[in-house]
Specification:
Length: 422
């Protein structure tokens, strides 16, 4: 018997015998991709920032805006998608085949457009003017975006869950260990940091990493050790937002909403026989982290710019069984443009997962049909009894592995700040 599982549910034995064999991949029927915007300017400066003046020179479009490098990264991602789905998508954009939605931020809207310029030849840069066509990108106002930007600020229940995480002994111990560090950092940055939300510390890291990525020398206090500690602080906070305790309940209020929307998209396509083949969501690292949390796949790594999580729905080859249905889902994660995307395994269902099983396993992390109340305390949802031991056992192993902050890979580039998509 393991300890509490990743979802905050009691862990049972891992019923490996129930796991199906990896299935051969059938033909694609539907794809959903969720990606982070490309390289951007830092979100903020800090009072003692020696490079304040340089901001307008290096990032003439302003704080938080997509850079030329960010545009290039998205073009590249679009070309990758074209290559991967060459045989699946029509050669040119068709509105009934592809639907693109972005958060209402300049950097994600621009990222979606740049991506589409890589995906569709008629939108490509350098296209002769007479043949050039832009591709539509849909959005909703930030305050109404329940799908890609989670209403955690205005959700008391989420705050309750977060409080439970931050009041836990391990969190408090880690935080106490960093009090001296944060006190020094206050002195260096002119920010008030001790006892404040940890995202303030992330913003310092974000600023430093963006400046470093653009060739500016860092102030002498910003040693590699300081940066590493800031990254660990950031991972602690992300873990509290998307990980245990009660990760599944948090997911119901965040990443599980998007997961549910993707599954609903596919159901609708099947039920109505729609010609829709692909939905694309242009969003933030917080979106990807929440989605990873909902899938039980957050492992301490922050998604880099233009990181892309893909859901590929395929026709199931062989006999459809009652439980599995006639469709499988496989997941990929592309966080490095120099290699092949990583295949991801849903805990408890490695390889391409029968849709029915995928639904069962992710049910605790998706909001129930009547929606999740943001107000008031309530008991955690009890998912179908057969699913719990399987999922919780499998993810307990993952949680044990991933909670070690040592796993955190330190990479240049800007980090995120929770509580505001970046
Ligand atoms: C803060 O900075 C001042 C001036 O640089 C220095 O005298 C003081 O010792 C510093 N305090 C801490 C806590 O580092
Ligand atoms: C897919 O989901 C999004 C978000 O819920 C929605 O706006 C869109 O209409 C859906 N498309 C289909 C075909 O279900
Ligand atoms: C799966 O079965 C459903 C219902 O029988 C059908 O509507 C759908 O087209 C099938 N999907 C595939 C990919 O074969
Ligand atoms: C990509 O993600 C995997 C899994 O989280 C991680 O092990 C790897 O270090 C990441 N690579 C990059 C370049 O971010």
């Amino acid at each position: 018997m393991a300890g509490p599982g990743f979802w905050g549910l009691p862990a049972g034995p891992i019923l490996l015998l129930l796991l199906p064999q990896a299935l051969p991949e059938g033909p694609l029927v539907f794809v959903a991709v969720v990606f982070r915007h490309g390289d951007r300017a830092p979100l903020a400066s800090y009072p003692t920032d020696p490079h304040k003046e340089a901001i307008t020179v290096l990032w003439p479009r302003g704080l938080g805006q997509l850079t030329g490098e960010g545009v290039r990264q998205q073009l590249e991602l679009g070309r990758f998608l074209r290559n991967r789905y060459e045989a699946f998508l029509s050669p040119e954009y068709r509105r009934e085949e592809v639907y693109v939605r972005s958060t209402d931020f300049d950097r994600t809207l621009e990222s979606a457009q740049a991506n589409l310029a890589g995906l569709f030849p008629e939108a490509a840069p350098g296209r002769p003017e007479a043949a050039w066509r832009p591709i539509p990108v849909h959005t909703v106002p930030v305050t109404e975006d329940k799908l890609l930007r989670f209403p955690t600020r205005s959700c008391p229940r989420y705050h309750e869950l977060l409080r439970e995480a931050t009041e836990a002994a391990e969190y408090q111990t880690a935080l106490e260990g960093w009090t001296d560090f944060l006190t020094h950092l206050e002195n260096y940055t002119g920010l008030s940091l001790v006892g404040e939300p940890l995202r303030r510390a992330w913003k310092v890291l974000d600023t430093l990493m963006c400046q470093q990525a653009h060739g500016l020398p860092l102030p002498s206090w910003a040693s590699p050790n300081v940066l590493r500690t800031l990254a660990q602080i950031s991972a602690l906070d992300i873990g509290a937002h998307v990980g245990p305790p009660r990760a599944a309940e948090k997911a119901q209020l965040t990443g599980g909403i998007l997961l549910e929307a993707i599954l609903a998209n596919f159901s609708r396509v099947q039920r109505l026989g729609l010609p829709l083949k692909m939905v694309m969501y242009s969003a933030h690292d917080s979106t990807l982290l929440a989605l990873q949390g909902a899938l039980g796949l957050y492992d301490g790594h922050t998604p880099p710019y233009a990181a892309c999580l893909g859901f590929e729905f395929r026709r199931h080859l062989g006999d459809p069984d009652e439980d599995a249905g006639n469709v499988t889902i496989s997941l990929f994660y592309r966080n490095d443009s120099s290699g092949l995307p990583l295949p991801l395994n849903l805990p408890g269902c490695p390889g391409s997962c029968p849709l029915g099983r995928f639904r069962q396993l992710t049910a605790p992390a998706r909001p129930p049909a009547h929606g999740v109340p943001c107000h008031g305390s309530r008991e955690p949802a009890t998912p179908a009894a057969t699913v719990v031991p399987l999922l919780a056992g499998a993810v307990a192993v993952l949680a044990g592995l991933s909670m070690g902050l040592g796993l955190l890979a330190w990479r240049p580039g800007c980090l995120r700040a929770w509580g505001g998509p970046v």
